[in-house]
Amino acid sequence: ENLGDKAHIVTLPDKLPKAWDLADSDAKEWPRERIISQLNFKHKKPKPIFKILGMSDGKNYFLSQNRVYAYSPSEIKKSNLLYLAPMSYWEDNYKGGKGVNWDSIANHLAQVSRSINFYCEDMLRGHGAWEDDNKYLYHAGDKLFYNNEIIELDDIDDSKFIYELGRPIDLNLNKMLTIEEGNEFISMLGKFSWSNDISSILLAGWLVCAPICGALKWRSNAWISGEHGSGKSWILKNVVMRILKNFSICVQGSTTEAGIRQELKNDSLPIIFDEIENINLNAADGIEQILEM
C-alpha cells in the first residue's frame, strides 16, 4: 500500500542493537501497525479531482486545483469541463458506446449543483492573514503558513472556507527580526522629526499589525500628517512601502470605497493611500466610509 509520496526522518526506539535495520527485525515484534505508528504517518485521503460547490445567481460553482470556476448551465460543456478535469477522467467515468456523453455530464453536474447548499462568495478567501475556527494562518497565494509550517491551500482540516490560488507572496518565516534588530528599527524611526515622540512607536506597532490585519478583531489605522514638504511621502515610500512590499495594496488618495473593494476582492491585506491632499467635505465623507469597511 502506498503510504505517501514524501520522505520522513524516523526516530527509532532506544536500546536497539548497533547498526540495527528494519530488515533484521522479527515480523512478530515489528508488525505493520507498529511500523506505521513509528513512522508517525497520517494517511491522507486522496483529494478529488474537482468539487461541486453549489449554485448562486444562476451559476454553478466548481473547485479544481484550488481555483473556482463559475458556469451557467449552458456553459457546462466540453471546453469548460476540461478545466475541471483531464480528458482521461471524463473518458473513465462517462464514456458510452459513442464516446464521452457530454450532455449527460452537463445534466448530472447541474443537478448535483442544485442539490447542494447555496454557494456564497464569503467562503472564498484570498491573500492575507485569516482566523479559521480558532486557527490562525497566512494565505501566501500558492501556500498557507500555519502552525510554523508550510501547507497546501486545501490542507486545513474541516475548513468551510476556500483558499483560492493566487499570485505567490514571498514570505520567509526563517528571516524574522531579532530583538536587537527590532530595537534598532524603532530607534531609526525615532530619528525622524515627529511632533510627538510616541508617533515613531505607534508607526512601528502599525507596521507589525498591518500584514495580519485580516485575522484581528479590530483593524487599526495610521495617518502620517504634516505640512507640505515635511517628509510624509519620504516615510511612506522609503519606510512603509519598503517594509510591507507585496503584503499590501497601494491606492491613490482619490480612490473610493467601491474602488478599494474592487482592488481587494477576497484579500485581507492592508491598504496604503499614496497621498490624501486637499480634503473637502465630500472627500472627508469618502474617507469615513473607507474607515468603516
What does this entry look like structurally?
The protein has 293 residues and is an alpha+beta fold. The chain is 31% helix and 16% strand. It has 9 helices and 13 strands. It has helices spanning 32-39, 78-84, 87-94, 102-115, 179-189, 198-209, 232-244, 257-264, 281-291; strands at residues 50-56, 59-64, 67-71, 95-96, 99-100, 124-125, 128-132, 135-139, 144-146, 149-151, 162-163, 249-251, 271-273. The strands form 5 sheets. The protein has a 4-stranded antiparallel β-sheet, with no helix packed on it. It has a 3-stranded antiparallel β-sheet with strand order 1-2-3, with helices on one face. Helix 8 (257-264) links the parallel strand 12 (249-251) and strand 13. Helix 5 (179-189) packs across helix 6. The model has no long low-confidence stretch (mean pLDDT 84).
Q: Which helices and strands, and how do they pair?
A:
Layout: H1 32-39, E1 50-56, E2 59-64, E3 67-71, H2 78-84, H3 87-94, E4 95-96, E5 99-100, H4 102-115, E6 124-125, E7 128-132, E8 135-139, E9 144-146, E10 149-151, E11 162-163, H5 179-189, H6 198-209, H7 232-244, E12 249-251, H8 257-264, E13 271-273, H9 281-291
Parallel strand pairs: 6-11, 12-13
Antiparallel strand pairs: 1-2, 2-3, 4-5, 7-8, 8-9, 9-10
